Amino acid sequence: MLEIIMTLFIGFVLAVSVVAVVFKDEVRSTRERDPAATNILEILLTYAGLHALILHRIAHVLWNMKVPFFPRWLSQFNRWLTGIEIHPAAKIGKGLFIDHGMGVVIGETTVIGDNVTLYQGVTLGGTGKEKGKRHPNIGDNVVIGAGAKILGNITMGDNSYVGANAVVIKDVPPNSTVVGVPGRVTKQDGKKMETMLDHVHVFDPIMQKIEELQNRIDNLEKDNK
Ligand SMILES: CC(C)(COP(=O)(O)OP(=O)(O)OC[C@H]1O[C@@H](n2cnc3c(N)ncnc32)[C@H](O)[C@@H]1OP(=O)(O)O)[C@@H](O)C(=O)NCCC(=O)NCCS
Fold first, then answer.
1. 63 ligand 1 Cβ < 6 A
2. Is any ligand 1 atom within 6 A of the Cβ of residue 103?
3. What pTM did the predictor assign?
4. Are strands 176-179 and 184-188 parallel, antiparallel or unpaired?
5. CB 3.0–4.6 Å: which of 37, 147, 160, 214 could bond 121 by disulfide?
6. Which residues contact 55 (CB under 8 A, 6 or more apart)?
7. Is 119 in the pocket of ligand 1 (CB under 6 A)?
8. What is the pLDDT of residues 109-137, one digit of tens each?
9. Whose Cα sits closest to atom 9 in ligand 1?
10. Residue 173's closest CA among 151, 198, 156?
11. Ligand 1 neighbourhood includes 167 CB (under 6 angstroms)
12. What 3 state SS string does the chain have?
């Protein structure tokens, strides 16, 4: 009996050590970005985002080897286990951190760069109108807030932030912050885009025409005096 327990314990320690080495970038990014993450063992055993990524890496290798059915099954098993749905064909860089995770959906033709952070409820999906490459490309160091939807074959530039619950349907330049529905850039390269949020001083073409006509009338009246 003691032998069985010892064998199981050694197997467990070995498995955890291998995962810690193979997924060192993801463990590092979790430690860096989640103040609640206190130690490596806790990250390895309790973070659903990391578990989803481990299963996705296996499914992705099998998908690339053109193994039938099993990668899709593994992806669904992953969803059942973690609440995170990642198509086995999705390409994901190193250091991805999925915080909380429940409800995250990553579509088939999505490409994710390095050191990206996704919060719960993020969808990297299609608009429903496109075929072929129909999911987004996410640059390096991008942070996508809870519930945000990035839809279509669009590109999110490196180092960008997407606010919680935003719906992004157009390309986003690097170093930007995007909020709202539809998503609009509110900050770029550290500078606030004041005019973007100014709904009072909007351009009004009719008012401009009236002002031009008033100027002409004023000038004509002046000439006739
Ligand atoms: C967008 C975000 C990254 C902040 O970026 P920031 O560049 O610091 O933006 P600011 O706080 O300066 O806000 C800029 C403007 O956007 C607005 N804004 C901020 N977040 C917003 C959001 N999610 N949706 C709509 N508007 C938002 C602000 O009210 C502000 O408007 P104002 O200029 O009219 O006052 C942050 O608000 C956010 O949504 N982070 C997601 C975090 C998350 O999902 N956490 C989940 C943890 S479980």
1. no
2. no
3. 0.84
4. antiparallel
5. 147
6. 74, 75, 77, 78, 81, 82
7. yes
8. 999 999 999 999 999 999 988 889 999 99
9. 177
10. 156
11. no
12. CHHHHHHHHHHHHHHHHHHHHHCHHHHHHHHHHCCCCCCHHHHHHHCHHHHHHHHHHHHHHHHHCCCCCHHHHHHHHHHHHHCCEECCCCEECCCCEECCCCCCEECCCCEECCCCEECCCCEEECCCCCCCCCCCEECCCCEECCCCEEECCCEECCCCEECCCCEECCCECCCEEEECCCCEEEEECCEECHHHHCCCCCCCHHHHHHHHHHHHHHHHHHHHC
Identity of residue 196:
M
Q: Which residues of the chain have pLDDT under 70?
A: 194-204
Mutate to test the pocket of ligand 1, among 116, 117, 186, 195 (most ligand atoms within 8 A of CB): 186
